[in-house]
């Protein structure tokens, strides 16, 4: 089973400019563990000190917010497309 993780430009400085990452992850926790190993600099941008998903990180699976699919316990399916989207604030 393979899923593809799309990494947005805002996070690519932590992934050596990698835009896509393919892996076999069972759920979000497994995915984050694999990303932690492959891209250690990305780790603090995914989870907080308690190991929970960062408040301002949105995760989409096949363009659907993972919160509406069961949250972190959602079991990835073969071919799933995962998008990590950090909330960005600012401006005037």
Word description of this protein:
By secondary structure, this protein is an alpha+beta fold. It has a single domain (3-86), classed as Ubiquitin-like (UB roll). The chain is built from two helices and five strands; from the N terminus they run ββααβββ. β3 and β4 form a beta hairpin. 18% of the residues are buried.
Work out the count of structural domains.
1
The overall pLDDT average reads: 92
CATH topology: Ubiquitin-like (UB roll)
Characterize the largest beta sheet: strand count, sense, and whether it forms a barrel. Answer: 5 strands, mixed
The percent range for strand residues is 15-25%
Q: What gross morphology would you assign?
A: globular
Structural class: alpha+beta
SSE series = EEHHEEE
What would CATH call the architecture? Roll
For the record, the CATH class is Alpha Beta
User: How far apart, in Å, are the first and last alpha carbons?
Assistant: 45 Å
Rounded to the nearest angstrom, the radius of gyration is 13 Å
Helix amount: 10-25%
Poorly predicted tracts of residues: none
Briefly say what this structure is:
This protein is of the alpha+beta class. The protein has helices at 28-38, 43-46; strands at 3-6, 20-23, 57-61, 64-65, 81-86.
């Amino acid at each position: 089973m393979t899923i593809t993780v799309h990494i947005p430009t805002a996070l690519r400085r932590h992934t050596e400019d990698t835009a896509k990452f393919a892996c076999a992850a069972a759920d979000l926790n497994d995915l984050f563990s694999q990303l932690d190993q492959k891209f250690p600099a990305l780790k603090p941008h995914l989870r907080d000190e308690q190991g929970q998903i960062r408040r301002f990180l949105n995760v989409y699976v096949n363009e659907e917010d993972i919160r509406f699919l069961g949250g972190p316990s959602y079991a990835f399916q073969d071919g799933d497309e995962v998008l990590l989207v950090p909330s960005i604030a600012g401006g005037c």
